[in-house]
Write a structure and sequence with these properties.
eight-stranded mixed sheet, Dihydrodipicolinate Reductase, domain 2, alpha/beta, elongated, about 30% helix, 2 domains
């Protein structure tokens, strides 16, 4: 999103000038929220830029986009402003876009640039695209003000440390927190919840012996940890069912988690598969087998990826296949969902508690 560089002190005046120049062009200035994006200057920044455009098309907001240059030998602070609308150009609604490009020691000045341009009496949503364990002056200040912090676990290398950081993050200010990878697997959580909603089905689920989760291991410049959604899905299931993690083994890229359930062992296998036409990390299928040989199978139709076939069987019978339809995926949809949600998911908190301080969740080991 190209903008003309101006001194930080001229941000307000330049926005005023831009809007005055557009009088008579049928453009309506709108701001539902303050949206603050923070990321380092790398390929991941391009992804954050893309989803920011998708978000403001649904929720016009004042956007403050901060990009930090990781090269510590540089020292600069550049700012610019523009007006953003729909990418198709047909919308008559537009919003403010403030860009901050910073490097080196000037990073300490960023809070003093950001805070005067937060619109009062509007919610403040912060999308933090970097590892939150690396505390910065800006993160410290925004903790006190933010309505909701949305993180992207793709930017970290140790899920257990990430979980520990987020649980500590919540304590002083009771800030609502979320994670884009948690949102990306919401459809699968809804599918499993709707399947095992009766007491009879829950009883079967509690007798699970093995679970196999297949995920898309195809990487991209924006995603180099495609296993996170699968890790989250198995961790969510085990946390909600009260299973105790015994250990993790890796073999030929397959991850095998061993859990204890009422004195018996449960095995969860995560299998990678490459599907170039699907987004990295996408869950492809989930298969569960119980001790009494009940099978529950859920698999995406690769030709129509938002369709999932469901097959349930026992040794005596096989039910007619069913179809479950996910909302069609689109770039930025996970962030839109998290902005719509209120509070912090208790299920997500249970997941974080189950994986904090567990060295098995270090992504560096895979």
């Amino acid at each position: 999103m190209p903008v003309d560089l101006i001194p930080p002190s001229e941000i307000h005046a330049e926005l005023k000038r831009i809007w005055e120049s557009q009088e008579g062009q049928n453009k309506m200035r709108a701001s539902l929220f303050n949206l603050i994006f923070y990321t380092e200057k790398n390929t991941h920044a391009e992804y954050i830029q893309a989803i920011s455009q998708n978000v403001i098309e649904k929720f016009p907001s004042r956007v403050i986009f901060i990009t930090k240059d990781p090269d510590e030998s540089k020292d600069h602070l550049h700012t610019g402003v523009s007006v953003l609308g729909s990418s198709d150009g047909d919308s008559d609604i537009a919003c403010d876009y403030i860009e901050i490009d910073v490097a080196g020691k000037h990073s300490e000045r960023v809070p003093f640039v950001v805070l005067p341009h937060i619109l009062p009496d509007l919610p403040i949503y912060v999308i933090w695209g970097e590892d939150p364990s690396q505390n910065t002056p800006l993160l410290t200040e925004l903790k006190k003000l933010a309505t909701r912090f949305i993180f992207d676990s793709e930017a970290i290398t140790d899920l257990s440390q990430f979980a520990h950081t987020l649980l500590d993050f919540q304590k002083p200010f009771s800030t609502d927190i979320a994670d884009l990878n948690w949102a990306r697997m919401e459809s699968w959580r809804n599918l499993l919840t709707s399947t095992f909603y009766t007491e009879e089905r829950l009883a079967k689920l509690r007798k699970t012996k093995t679970i196999q989760i297949l995920y898309n291991a195809e990487e991209s410049p924006f995603c180099c940890h495609p296993q996170i959604q699968a890790l989250y899905l198995q961790g969510w299931l085990s946390a909600q069912l009260g299973w105790t993690l015994l250990g993790l083994k890796t073999e030929n890229d397959k991850l095998t988690f061993s859990y204890q359930r009422e004195g018996r062992e449960v095995t969860i296998n995560l299998y990678p598969e490459t599907q170039k036409n699907l987004k990295p990390g996408t869950i492809l299928s989930v298969d569960l087998e119980t001790e009494d040989q009940h099978h529950f199978s859920f698999g995406r139709d690769l030709a129509v990826p938002h369709h999932v076939s469901m097959r349930f069987s026992t040794l005596e019978k096989c039910d007619m296949p069913l179809k479950y339809i996910f909302t069609k995926d689109e770039s930025g949809q996970s962030l839109v969902k998290e902005i719509c949600h209120k509070g912090t998911s208790t299920h997500y908190i249970h997941l974080l508690k189950s994986i904090q301080d567990r060295k098995e969740y270090s992504l560096c080991e895979y």
